[in-house]
UniProtKB/TrEMBL annotation:
<dbReference type="InterPro" id="IPR029044">
    <property type="entry name" value="Nucleotide-diphossugar_trans"/>
</dbReference>
<dbReference type="GO" id="GO:0006777">
    <property type="term" value="P:Mo-molybdopterin cofactor biosynthetic process"/>
</dbReference>
<comment type="function">
    <text>Transfers a GMP moiety from GTP to Mo-molybdopterin (Mo-MPT) cofactor (Moco or molybdenum cofactor) to form Mo-molybdopterin guanine dinucleotide (Mo-MGD) cofactor.</text>
</comment>
<feature type="binding site">
    <location>
        <position position="106"/>
    </location>
    <ligand>
        <name>GTP</name>
    </ligand>
</feature>
<keyword id="KW-0548">Nucleotidyltransferase</keyword>
<feature type="binding site">
    <location>
        <position position="75"/>
    </location>
    <ligand>
        <name>GTP</name>
    </ligand>
</feature>
<dbReference type="GO" id="GO:0005737">
    <property type="term" value="C:cytoplasm"/>
</dbReference>
<keyword id="KW-0963">Cytoplasm</keyword>
<comment type="similarity">
    <text>Belongs to the MobA family.</text>
</comment>
<dbReference type="GO" id="GO:0046872">
    <property type="term" value="F:metal ion binding"/>
</dbReference>
<keyword id="KW-0808">Transferase</keyword>
<protein>
    <recommendedName>
        <fullName>Probable molybdenum cofactor guanylyltransferase</fullName>
        <ecNumber>2.7.7.77</ecNumber>
    </recommendedName>
</protein>
<keyword id="KW-0342">GTP-binding</keyword>
<dbReference type="InterPro" id="IPR025877">
    <property type="entry name" value="MobA-like_NTP_Trfase"/>
</dbReference>
<dbReference type="GO" id="GO:0061603">
    <property type="term" value="F:molybdenum cofactor guanylyltransferase activity"/>
</dbReference>
<feature type="domain" description="MobA-like NTP transferase">
    <location>
        <begin position="9"/>
        <end position="150"/>
    </location>
</feature>
<keyword id="KW-0479">Metal-binding</keyword>
């Protein structure tokens, strides 16, 4: 089986209830949110996997029909409803890689320089299985780098476990403090995520400030 160095997993399977519409297709400047994430991910990884909500699969397939390096998947049936970890397991099972960027589909400020910083961080911390940022005392696990955890994730999920923080704590995790990741990018709201229409409106008003 081929093993890639880097693959990107974009987690887009949420319900988007507070937004009232799929966050995957929210506008971001002159493109869609998902197009932005795919664009930057393909500069630093060979393949991109989008873990999609079932209602978005057809539209995503049409959007990326000409890009053979993108796979549109849904969570493994046996782990549907298990949250982000089910998406990680599904993606890792589909394409074998040493490392995976794991990105939420609602972070418009994630950029290439940050992803390249994550790559360098894996070289500086070769014993780590997960590398995730800390901002204002809070972990952001859906903006991190994950070593292939397919076997461990299967065992964890198969026991009925769903909590992401418990899984992160069960493996060797390096938590990047702001003074470190802040050197990779000048974006001071890197981990801003859009959950409501007002979040989107506020982001659009301040995008060029």
């Amino acid at each position: 089986m081929i093993m890639y160095k880097w693959v990107t997993l974009i987690l887009a399977g949420g319900q988007s209830r507070r937004m009232g519409t799929s966050k995957t297709f929210l506008p971001r400047k002159d493109q869609l949110m998902i197009e932005h994430l795919v664009s930057i991910s393909q500069e630093v990884s060979g393949h991109t996997i989008i873990i999609s909500h079932e209602n978005d699969v057809l539209k995503l397939n049409k959007l990326f029909i000409q890009n053979q390096n993108i796979a549109i998947l849904q969570d493994e049936q046996r782990f549907k409803g298990f949250g982000p970890l089910a998406g990680l397991y599904t993606g890792m099972k589909h394409i074998n890689a040493e490392w995976y960027f794991v990105l939420a589909n609602d972070m418009p400020n994630i950029n290439i320089s940050y992803l390249k910083g994550l790559q360098q961080c894996t070289l500086s911390h070769p014993q780590s299985d997960i590398i995730i940022p800390i901002h204002n005392g809070r972990m952001h696990p859906l903006a991190g780098a994950y070593r292939n955890q397919e076997k461990g994730l299967y065992e964890y999920l198969n026991k009925g476990n769903k909590k992401m923080t418990d899984f992160i704590d069960s493996v060797s995790t390096y938590k990047i403090l702001e003074q470190e990741w802040g050197e990779w990018t000048n974006q001071n709201k890197l981990f801003f995520n859009m959950n409501t229409p007002s979040d989107l409106s506020n982001w659009e008003k301040n995008i060029d400030k």
